[in-house]
Structures are given as C-alpha cells and as structure tokens.
Design brief:
CATH class of the largest domain: Mainly Beta
Distance between the termini: 63 Å
Number of domains: 2
CATH superfamily of the largest domain: Rieske [2Fe-2S] iron-sulphur domain
Number of helices: 3
Length: 271
C-alpha cells in the first residue's frame, strides 16, 4: 500500500503599513484601505504537492478566460476610489479671518485661504509664491484687496493671476502677465458654515460644485426654515493619528473610567 504524504501548506504572511499623520483634525476623517503584500523572502506553497490528491481535469476555453479577465477589470475600476476627486472640509468659517491669509495642509497639499473682497468669496490657493516659493499665508491683503507675498511684494487676485510686480520697470514689458507668474487656485465652496475645497486645480473642475456639491445637513443650516436646532462649532488639534481617534470614538466602554469626574455619566451597575 502506498502511503500518501501531504505536506503542510504555510499560511501567507501579511505586512500592514499604516501612514500616521502628525496631527488630526476632528472635522476631517479619512482612512485609506490598508495595503498588504507577500514578503519577498516568503516561500509560496508548491502546487505540485497536491497533484496526487486532485486528478480531475478542468479546462477553460479562451473565450471564458477573456470574459473572466474583462469582468475582473471592470470590478477593479468600479472599486477604485479617487481621493483627489472629492470635497474636503478645510476650516469652519468661524476660524477664518477676512483681514489676513491663513495656511493649512490638507491631503498633503499646502494651502492658503484668504478673503477676496473684490469677488466677496473665500479663495483657496497653493501656499507658494511662484517667484521664490515663499508661503503666501505669511503675506497680507493689500489696500486693493489682493494677496501680497511677504518676500518681494508680488500681488495676486482671486483667480491666481499676478497683478503687480514691484521690481518690474514701469516702461518695460508686462512680465506680470506671464502664466509662469500665476498661482494655482482650487475650487472651493461654503456649506453648513464650513469651507470645502476640491484638491484638483485643473480648469475643468472650476465649477465642480454645479454637478457635485459638498455634503449638506439641512438640520444644521440655520437659514433653513425647517431647522429647529441650534449649533455650537468646535475645532481641536489632537497630536495623534486619525485611526486612533476613530477607534477611541467607537469605544464607549472606556467612558465611565477614562472620563470619570469629567463627564456626567450614569453610575456603573453594581455586581
């Protein structure tokens, strides 16, 4: 009698990589799917060890293989999430100051937010002057309502166009009109007293709010006649990654102990 030996099949090992930001804002929470892969030094199970166990032959025609491949590709395209084709909240309007620009980083993009009094709109632009890449958020709003760089005084309007270069001779060529002197502008929109932005400055997305609006909560809109709620806004900087924040908020069992004496909590049942 022949003895059939079956070798143990080692389970795959998964390596998880979590990118943890230095700070998390309570009003922003996005988590990417975890990426995993087989380590380079892991030996895959040898399929030949199972040849003696399974003798049934399965044949698949070329047409069937093409159908399966096409279906898998379609599913992958449907499941793909474009992180740069979404609205993201930047700041509450109560945080913003119309008299000076403010800087913030969202989705890894350094942004400057400022009030264009000529258009009466909040503007979101790259936080870098095209001249020497000085942060525009450290600049000022000049007497004509333009965003002025703090380094050499270059001035920009709400469309990102350079309108004035102090060092350029008045009788010389209009160098400020060069496209290389422009600042990238991102689509922005105010919803529920929150300033949102679209992290793609391609001109085709200039009016993206007409086809895709940021999330809207009618009950929080004090201008809505059907709203009977008041609201209080709060922003807090927390020095840890967003995944820990979400885990903490989804864990109510710690409240009675970690927040003892701070929050009004019903007493724990006696056992």
């Amino acid at each position: 009698m022949e003895t059939l030996k079956i070798s143990t099949c080692f389970p795959p090992l998964f390596h998880f990589n979590f990118n943890t930001p230095k700070f998390s804002r309570i009003i922003i929470g996005e988590k990417k799917k975890d990426n995993f892969s087989f380590p380079q030094n892991h030996q895959q199970p040898n399929k030949s060890r199972f040849n003696n166990l399974f003798t049934t032959n399965i044949s698949i025609s070329t047409n069937d293989e093409q159908k399966i491949t096409t279906k898998n590709n379609e599913n992958q395209e449907e499941e793909k999430f474009d992180w740069y084709a979404q609205w993201y909240p930047i700041m509450l309007l109560s945080e913003l100051n119309k008299r000076r620009p403010q800087g913030i980083k969202v989705m890894g993009i350094d942004l400057v937010v400022w009030w264009d009094r000529n258009l009466e709109e909040w503007k979101v632009m790259d936080d870098a002057c095209p001249h020497r890449l000085a942060p525009l958020s450290q600049g000022r709003i000049d007497q004509w309502g333009r965003l002025q760089c703090v380094y050499h005084g270059w001035c920009f309007n709400g469309s990102g166009d350079c309108k004035f270069i102090p060092q350029a001779p008045r009788d010389g060529p209009p160098v400020h009109t060069s496209k290389r002197a422009c600042v990238a502008v991102y689509p922005s929109f105010v919803q529920n007293d929150v300033l949102w932005f679209w992290p793609n400055n391609d001109p085709s997305y200039k009016n993206i709010h007409l086809s895709k609006m940021p999330p809207y909560i009618p009950l929080l809109d004090l201008n809505n006649a059907n709203s009977s709620y008041g609201k209080t806004t709060l922003v807090r900087e927390i020095p840890y990654g967003y995944e820990l924040l979400i885990e903490n908020l989804m864990d109510p069992s710690h409240v009675n102990y970690a927040h003892h004496g701070i929050m009004k909590i019903p007493p724990s049942p006696k056992r």
